[in-house]
Design a protein that fits this description.
The chain is built from five helices and no strands. With about 80 residues, the protein is mainly α.
Length: about 80
């Protein structure tokens, strides 16, 4: 069924390093966009943050001014995690 296929695709993406703590253009986490409870639970259970993600969340929560100090790549990474 479609839910099983979706679950398989999500597991493949997660195994490939997808960041499940990134936000969409409406500032929603993937688990908030999922329509099926099984998929929401899967996304929530796999949401672990790397040190890079943890640092990003710290920068955001503490409102640290980073724009003058980081590369464009890191700035984009931070924007993907902004709540």
């Amino acid at each position: 069924n479609d839910t099983d296929l979706t679950q398989s695709i999500i597991e493949l993406l997660i195994a490939s390093g997808t960041h499940t703590d990134c936000l969409d253009d409406q500032r929603r986490l993937p688990e908030q966009c999922a329509k099926h409870t099984k998929i929401r639970q899967l996304l929530h259970s796999k949401r672990s943050m790397s040190l890079k993600c943890q640092c990003t969340h710290l920068i955001i929560s503490q409102e640290i001014q980073y724009e003058s100090y980081l590369s464009e790549t890191l700035k984009k990474f931070i924007l993907l995690h902004q709540f």
